Amino acid sequence: MFITWVMQEKMTTMSSHICENLCREIHADSCGELNKLGLFQELVSLSPVECRKIRQVYMQMYREDLYNNFKNVGNLGKVDDEKQDGSSSNSWAEVGLSMLMLNPHERDAVVCREALERNDVKYNVLVEIFTCRKSSHFLLIQQAYQSRFQRHLDQDILKIEPPSPYQKLLIALSASHKAHKVELSQHIAKCDARRLFEAGEGGAGQVDEAVMLEILSKRSIAQTKLAFSSYKHIYGHSFTSLLRKRKCREFEDAVLAVVRCISSPTKYFAEVLNGSLKSGDKEALVRIMVSRAEVDMEDIRKEFENKYSLDLKSAISECPGIPQGNYKNLLLSLLENTH
Fold it and tell me: What's one GO-annotated cellular component (predicted)?
């Protein structure tokens, strides 16, 4: 069978011939039973770049978007699974595969929209994207969001009801991506650290909203990260420790989420992955594994092992909440593809 031969190939870039033949097999799978034809394992073994090439070639050949095809199958399957036994592992595998078909900025735009459309807005997902993406990438996210949904991301955030402190922080972070100074300033970082201290520990013990929003909106993410590092160096403890000790408003809770993501993304994602494995949050697992596969998954894996004394691959393999099947294969393949 053709796919067996493809699986034996160790090619960094797939040729057009291989792509076309694989697309023909996908198209022949009219029932969407990827596992039956062995296609699912083949597709998840590809790199994200190769997945996007498959999507491009498939669009040229059949005028159909594989992202939509896989996403629709996954969503239908989730409904069926929930009716049967409450398990949606295989369906989330299809959704994860659909995410691999998108360009990173296009995927982030879709994830942002889905986070905003929830009855309970998933602010943690938005914070991840607004803080852990390069400014050049964030601009592409905004463009993709407007192109796909005919809406403006910032405006949709401002329109959230009921109002939340996260709205102010997200808009400030959006503005921060326009602060394109390449060189970091230790002097500015120390001044910002001093302002944070004076407005917090040196003042009323609460984070001054005006100071925090000004720093977040006028500094790049990298410069803000340097300010938090300077804070710890000058005052002997992290800014997050102050927030955890003295938080008493929703604003402090929201700031803590933002600061954690900015200060150490790898630590943050390692902690979220651990929590998701324990709770069985399949959506969070696949979102992070896919989005960080091309960025820093190997660093996250090292952080996970250092923090929990367990390799992430073993944690996924041995997780009782993740049954054997396509979903587990997807997560493990994403780990393997980071080497």
Answer: plasma membrane
